Structures are given as C-alpha cells and as structure tokens.
Amino acid sequence: MNKRTLRSTYTDYPTRTGYDQMNVSRPAPQRPRKRVPPEQTHAENYYYRKQMENRTPMAVVLNDGETVFGTIEWYDKNCIKIHRTDEPNLLIFKHSIKYLYKQEQKVEALPVEEEEVEEIDVEEALDEEGVEEDVEVEDETEEEEEEEEES
Description:
Layout: H1 43-54, E1 58-62, E2 67-75, E3 79-83, E4 90-93, E5 97-102, H2 122-129, H3 132-150
C-alpha cells in the first residue's frame, strides 16, 4: 500500500468565497540588522604586546594608590607580570590596577622648596626709588573718589 501525501493546490484559492486578493496581509520587508559591535577589540592585548616587545619601563598605579615600576613580562586575561630589576617580580591582578603609564611620559613633580621672603618696608623702598610723590598723589585721588561716591 502506497501512502500518498495529500497536498492542496493553491489554484483553488481565488474560487473560495471571502477571499480578497487586494487585502492580503504580507509580512513587511525586513531591513538588514545592524551588526553588533564585537565584545572584544583586542586593543588591550595589542598595547601589552607592544610594551613587552619594546621592554618599555612602565608605572602601574594600584587601586590603593601604590605605584609599581617595572616592565611587563607577560599578561593573560586576569593578570600581568611586572619584571623589576632591583626588587622581586610581581604578579598583579588586573582588577586591582587603577591605571598604568609609560615612565618617561609622566614626570613626577618635585617638592618646591619655599624661599625665604624678606619683609621690605614699602615706604623705604619708595624713598629709594623716588616714587613717594606719585604714591601720595594717588592716595589723594582715591580719597577724593571715595568722598564723591559717598555724597
């Protein structure tokens, strides 16, 4: 016994009652979707690799404010290894790094020594320069302006 699949032909649709060819709802044409940006751009990996190859002296500032100096020896997804010459090497978790920079880029400000300032008597300095008369004239004009403002 053969089983035949029964298929309806679509030619009989126009003959059915209640069928309107003009009022057929068709799905709206779909616009192509925008591409989702990649989750990983690999910019971080490129930066680490470049600094490793050049053996660039780096400064790593941790979340607690401590600064570690050295070169990046290797990195992975969660941590980086800092090679230091005079001190032991460090393995630092990335989540504990606040930021890092090249050592030659950032020059730390040196503490400024306070210079001793001599107290100078203004009247003596003016007498030496011969400017005393001009100062008196300015003082008189200021007093006159104040009197005019008050009245």
